[in-house]
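Quick one, probably user error.
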């Protein structure tokens, strides 16, 4: 049985403890790994956990489950795929973060793997895939960890909640059935929804702004009937470098609380271009928050009408 072990590394301008935290807290992954759409916990213990990862590979969305062991003292995270995809028979490895100075660290990414039936051609294919993916992942990680560290003050989250005297299923269905939004939502000019894998959607739509202009956005959505839809926007408006969000539906004593949550990182390069020479982070935050909140509240309002009409 041939087990291959390889290592890749990169140096980043961020403190080691901060790099470890960004990797350890999986809710950060859509920020620091461009292909990652959403991650959630299947099981969580003190230092052991199982996580499900949804990510795009070659333009297609896929998901898998990994086990992780967290060692905050050693700044080490060990991972092992539970079910590997052919031709991989088994795959695991570790992230090791080493401080090089107060604001500099080395990230080492270790992999060990073997091919089904020890097939040499398969092993070579995996060698190339791991090498290519590790290099691009570490390069993206460097960019995005440094960005996340530097842009902590440019990142904000907020939510809007609407109470609905109806069922969570009907409210969820309204958000899930985005292919009908063109007829159902006045601010949506056109929609293209694809769902090749159940619960995994790509949603492209043209949205009308108050001034009559339209802009196109594309998101990937991960759907959990009938309580949550999480998404990551992959074509972004000029004022954002990141936009993730989720719709949640919680049963209450008298109906359902439907919430739209957004996390945004501002793109400072475009603030004065779009909002004028005197605008800064505060104005951009207000502008983006108002625009997102207006659309979310409008959508939730229509979901409320839809669900209450079906009582």
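Nope, works fine. Designed sequence:
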């Amino acid at each position: 049985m041939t087990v291959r072990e390889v290592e890749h590394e990169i140096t980043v301008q961020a403190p080691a403890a901060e790099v470890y935290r960004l990797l350890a807290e999986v809710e950060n992954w859509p920020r620091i790994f461009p292909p990652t759409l959403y991650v959630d916990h299947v099981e969580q213990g003190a230092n052991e956990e199982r996580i499900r990862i949804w990510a795009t590979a070659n333009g297609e969305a896929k998901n898998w489950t990994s086990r992780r062991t967290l060692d905050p003292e050693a700044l080490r995270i060990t991972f092992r795929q539970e079910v590997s995809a052919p031709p991989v028979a088994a795959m695991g490895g570790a992230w090791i973060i080493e401080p090089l100075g107060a604001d500099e660290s080395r990230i080492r990414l270790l992999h060990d793997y073997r091919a089904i039936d020890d097939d040499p051609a398969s092993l070579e294919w995996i060698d190339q895939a791991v090498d290519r993916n590790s290099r691009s992942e570490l390069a993206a990680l460097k960019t995005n960890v440094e960005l996340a560290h530097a842009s902590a003050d440019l990142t904000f989250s907020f939510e809007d909640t609407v109470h609905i005297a109806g069922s969570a299923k009907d409210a969820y269905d309204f958000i899930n059935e985005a292919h009908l939004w063109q007829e159902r939502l006045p601010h949506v000019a056109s929609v293209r929804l694809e769902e090749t894998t159940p619960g995994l959607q790509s949603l492209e739509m043209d949205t009308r702004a108050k001034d009559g202009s339209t802009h196109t956005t594309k998101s990937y959505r991960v759907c959990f009937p009938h309580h949550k839809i999480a998404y990551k926007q992959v074509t972004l408006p000029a004022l954002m470098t990141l936009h993730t969000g989720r719709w949640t539906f919680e049963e209450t004593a008298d109906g359902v609380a439907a919430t739209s949550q957004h996390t945004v990182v501002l793109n400072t390069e475009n603030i004065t271009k779009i909002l004028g020479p005197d605008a800064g982070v505060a104005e951009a935050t207000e502008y983006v928050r108002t625009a997102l909140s207006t659309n979310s509240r409008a959508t939730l309002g229509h979901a409320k009408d839809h669900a209450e009409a079906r009582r």
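DSSP finds seven helices and 14 strands in the chain.
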